[in-house]
Amino acid sequence: MRFKSYYWILVFVGLVMGIILTMQFRVTQEITKSSPSLERTMALSQELEENRKDREKLKLQVYELRDRLDQAVTVPELGKLKEELDRVRGLAGMTDINGPGVKVTLNDSPNVPQPGQDPNIFVLHDEDLLILLNELKAAGANAIAINEHRIISTTEVRCIGPTILINKNQRISPPFIISALGNPDTLANSLKMKSGVLDLLQVYGIQADVKKMNEVTIPAYSGTLAFNHAKPKQ
Amino acid sequence: MTSKTTGYISIMLVALILGLMLAVQYRVVNRAPTVISTDRAKEIADEIKQIDRDREALHKEISDLIYKLEQVNQGKNEAINALHNELEKTRMAAGLLTVTGPGVEVILDNPGERKGSWLQSDVFIISAEDLLKVVNELWGGGAEATSINSQRIISTTEIRFAGPFLNINTVRVVPPYQILAVGDADALAGVLELPGGLAEFLRSLGIEVTVEKHQDLTVPAYTES
C-alpha cells in the first residue's frame, strides 16, 4: 500500500513536468516565428547608417554654398544688409558663439538595478533634459548645446532605447555635456537651487557636475532652414 | 535492496535531464525577444523615415542656395534680392517674423470645479512640464513655428512657474493655454493623439485637451526687447 502511493506521486510529477515542457517548447517556437528576422533588422540598420552619411554630406554642401553666397555679396552697398543677416543668423543659432558660461556633465546612475527594480529610473530621460534646458533658458542662457549640438527653437529631445535623439534624429548618448552661455553664477545657481533640477536628478543617482567656465564655445546649428509649410505673413 | 538503489538512480537521472532541459529552455526564451524585437525594427524604420525627410529638406536648401548664388552673379539688383530672401528665411527661423500655414491648435485647460469632490482642483493644475512636453512633441512631429497664448517659442524661450503664474518669454500667461503649431497638420495631430501618447496621458491626469487641425494658422513673431 505504501509503495503504491509513492508511485502515484511520481506519475503525477512526471505528468505535470511533461505538460510544462511542451508548453515551453510551443512558446519558444512562437516567439522565434513572430519576431522579424535578424537579417531584416540588420539590413534596416545598414540603410539607416548610409542615410546618415548622406545627410552629413548634404550638410557640408549647404555650408559651402552659404559661405560662397556670403563671399559673393561683398559689394559695399550690401554691407548693411549683410550685417543684419549676420545678426539674425546669430539669433537663429547659425553662428558659433563663445563667452563665459557653465558646463554641465550628466551621466547615468552607476547603481545596478536590483532584481525587480525598474532599470528605467536610473537612466536619464528626455524629460530630465527638457527640464534642465528649460531651467538654463529661464536663468538667461543665450545659447546652449548638448554634446556639440546647438539647441535652437525647433530642437526636440526624444528617448529612443538607451540613446537620446535631438535636432531631427541626431543621436547622442551619455555622458551628456551641456554647455550654456550666460552669467556663470546665475546659471550654476539656478541649477543647484534647493529642490531644483539637480537635486531631483540626484535622487535617482544620476551623476551631475556643474562647472563655471570663463569661456565656453557653442557651435552653430548644423541643420537646414527649409520651410515646407510656414510662410511669412504679408 | 539492489532494485531499490537502481530505482533511485534512475529517478535522479530523469530529474537531472529534466532540470537541464528546463534551464536551456528558459535561457532561449529569455534571449529571443531582446535580440530581435519587433520594436527595434520599427524604431529603425521610423528613424529612416525621419532622416529621409531631413535629407529632402537639405536638397531643397541646396537648390535654393544655388539659385541665389546664380542671381548674385547676375548683377547688383539680383544680389540684393537674393540677400533679402536669405535674410527673410533666417528671420523666420529666428522667430522674428509672423508666419502662416497649415497646422494644429492644441488647447489645454484645467478641469472646472468638481462638484462634490473632496479633491482640490489645484491638484490637477497644468504644470510647466506638461507644456514643455507638448511643445517638444510638436517639434518632434516637424512643426516649423509654435506659440503659446501668442508667445512665440524661440531657442531661448523658457516655460516656467513664477509664483502662481506661468511665465513664457518672461510674459505672464494664464490658462486656458492655446498652443499653435505650423507644419504638416496630420503629422502634428498624429504625434499627439498616438495611442498611449501625450494627449492620452494628459487626459488621464484630468486635463482637458483638444487637438484641432487647421488649414491656415497664424503664429505671431517674437517681440525683441
Notes on the structure:
- The complex is a heterodimer of chains A (234) and B (225).
- By secondary structure, chain A is an alpha+beta fold.
- Chain A folds into two domains: 39-86; 98-218, Alpha-Beta Plaits.
- Chain A is built from six helices and nine strands.
- Chain A has helices spanning 2-34, 38-72, 79-92, 126-138, 184-192, 197-203, and strands at residues 97-107, 143-146, 149-150, 157-160, 163-166, 170-172, 176-181, 207-218, 231-232.
- In chain A, strands 3-2-7-1-8 form a five-stranded antiparallel beta sheet.
- In chain A, a hairpin with a 2-residue loop joins strand 2 and strand 3 (149-150).
- The longest helix of chain A is centred in the first third of the chain and has 35 residues, at 38-72.
- Chain A is elongated, with a radius of gyration of 28 Å.
- Chain B folds into two domains: 46-93, no CATH class; 102-219, 2-Layer Sandwich (Alpha-Beta Plaits), CATH 3.30.70.
- Chain B has helices at 2-35, 38-74, 76-94, 128-140, 185-193, 198-204; strands at 99-109, 145-148, 151-152, 159-162, 165-168, 171-173, 177-182, 208-219.
- In chain B, strand 2 (145-148) and strand 3 form a beta hairpin.
- In chain B, helix 2 runs antiparallel to helix 3 (76-94).
- The mean pLDDT of chain B is 82.
- Chains A and B meet through helix 1, helix 2, helix 3, helix 4 and strand 4 of A and helix 1, helix 2, helix 3, strand 1 and helix 4 of B.
- Strand 9 of chain A pairs antiparallel with strand 1 of chain B.
